[in-house]
Write a structure and sequence with these properties.
The chain is of the alpha/beta class. The protein contains nine helices and ten strands. Strands 1, 2, 3, 4, 5, 6, 7, 8, 9 and 10 form a ten-stranded mixed sheet that branches. Helix 7 links the parallel strand 3 (140-146) and strand 4.
Length: 286
């Protein structure tokens, strides 16, 4: 508590200067997992620890947790085991809420259909493909997933009949259902990505698990997910809700439903604390 109190009082510039000599004195501080970044996306050019998602350790962490995740989807137990945990008995209510929201959207997108095409933007190694099969077992899914090379390449080995992309060529066609879960805010040009996802949507677009603020402009934060074994840091947007919805409307997206996922993560030094939300859209004239 005392260490953290001292950490909170020290301005970032002075902190970076004092941190090394303090560590020589035996005073060590755990860095904040989530922290406001005043210089925005330029921080990635100045800090070598900000390596993004295309890191082998991220894949190794996913692979280590994959058997537990797959097992959690079997049987009749709650959909409450996050892909970030290795504890099969641990039920995460936020994750359960997230999956139930997704289940509603998947059911709506596939209503009266035996098969659908689906784009999973930032879908990692294909977690939502398995989740979808567990939720609606008799639904045929033509699954497409876009992510960084280290994840997409492994996903293709797991699901050879699916389609994995490392670039934006996946946006050159349209899909019945487009999903972007915990991914849009990691794009520096998030508004351009949203426009591309809107054009690729023939039916429904579900953007979920994004951090939003209500009163302050959008800002950038850094996440340090070392506790998950990722051994990297990455930048992301905390988006202003009105700005996001206005841009969605400009891309001919009609809001169908807003969701609250239940995540309220503390971002150190942020001008406003965020709330994670999801938004289901439908393309106009579809």
């Amino acid at each position: 508590m005392i260490k953290q109190f001292i950490r909170d009082l020290i301005p970032p510039l002075i902190w970076r200067t004092l941190r090394k000599p303090l560590s020589h004195l035996g005073i060590k501080f755990t860095p904040q997992e989530w922290e406001y970044v005043s210089n925005g996306w330029r921080a990635a050019q100045a800090d070598p620890k900000i390596k993004g998602w295309n890191v082998q350790d991220v894949l190794e962490a996913f692979k280590a947790k994959w058997p537990t995740f797959v097992k959690s989807l079997e049987g009749a137990m709650p959909f409450g085991s996050s892909s970030e945990t290795i504890l099969p008995a641990q039920v995460d209510l936020v994750f359960h809420n997230t999956i139930m929201c997704f289940a509603y959207v998947l059911a709506l997108s596939s209503r009266h259909k035996a098969s659908i095409s689906m784009l999973d933007w930032g879908g990692g190694i294909g977690h939502y493909f398995l989740i979808s099969q567990a939720l609606v077992p008799d639904l045929e899914i033509n699954y497409h997933c876009k992510d960084v090379p280290v994840l997409a390449d492994h996903g293709q080995t797991l699901f050879p009949k699916a389609h994995f992309y490392t670039d934006e060529t996946c946006l050159e066609r349209q899909y019945d259902f487009v999903l972007a879960s915990t991914s849009l805010h990691y794009s520096q040009d998030w508004s351009d990505v949203l426009s591309g996802l809107a054009r690729a949507t023939a039916g429904y677009l579900f953007i979920t698990r994004l951090p939003f603020v209500q009163h302050t402009p959008s800002f950038v934060f850094v996440q340090r997910p070392y506790q998950y074994g990722y051994n990297t840091e990455y930048l992301g947007w905390c988006l202003n809700r009105d700005e996001f919805l206005h841009h969605a409307a400009d891309t001919r997206l009609t809001l169908v439903r807003e969701f609250v996922t239940g995540e309220n993560l503390y971002i150190h030094r942020a001008p406003e604390q965020c709330e994670y939300r999801g938004y289901l859209f439908q393309r106009e004239n579809t």
